[in-house]
């Protein structure tokens, strides 16, 4: 099983910023990790990274408020990698969690169509 220490980042230079990105395929998922300018992570100096997760359908929401997670440390990324290996239906569970949290907070779930994904 891959660990955070095994992940290699690539530098991407844009007009006014520098970012570092890496992606790891774990089963049906692609875990995207990044840091740098205009991202929610500063990198190795502060051990903080921005994390997003994708499956064959779309982005997998990693919290009830945002699809991406910011300021995640390497130990938390290792935990996420382990959960992706050990938890079947991880993406489905995240979508259900986001939908039910949104419903409790705002009672506007009818505007968001996740039913197709809950088969």
Structural descriptors:
alpha+beta; single chain; globular; 2 helices; 28% strand; 119 residues; six-stranded antiparallel sheet
Can you tell me about this structure?
By secondary structure, this protein is an alpha+beta fold. The chain has 2 helices and 6 strands. Strands 1, 2, 3, 4, 5 and 6 form a 6-stranded antiparallel beta sheet that branches.
Largest sheet: 6 strands, antiparallel
Gap from first CA to last CA: 29 Å
According to DSSP, the number of beta strands is: 6
Shape: globular
Please, how many domains?
1
Mean pLDDT: 87
The number of helical elements comes to 2
Structural class: alpha+beta
Helix and strand string, N-terminal first?
A: EEEEEEHH
Low-confidence stretches: 106-114
Cα-atom Rg, whole angstroms? Answer: 15 Å
Strand content: 25-35%
Percentage of residues assigned to helices: 25-40%
């Amino acid at each position: 099983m891959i660990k955070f220490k095994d992940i290699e980042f690539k530098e991407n230079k844009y007009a006014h910023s520098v970012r570092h990105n890496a992606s790891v395929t774990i089963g049906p998922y692609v875990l995207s990790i990044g840091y740098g300018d205009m991202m929610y992570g500063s990198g190795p100096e502060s051990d903080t990274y921005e994390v997003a997760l994708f499956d064959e359908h779309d982005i997998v929401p990693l919290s009830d408020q945002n699809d991406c997670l910011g300021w995640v440390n390497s130990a938390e990324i290792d935990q996420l990698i382990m959960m992706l290996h050990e938890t079947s239906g991880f993406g489905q569970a995240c979508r259900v969690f986001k939908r039910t949290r949104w419903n409790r907070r705002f009672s506007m779930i009818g505007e968001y169509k996740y039913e197709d994904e809950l088969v």
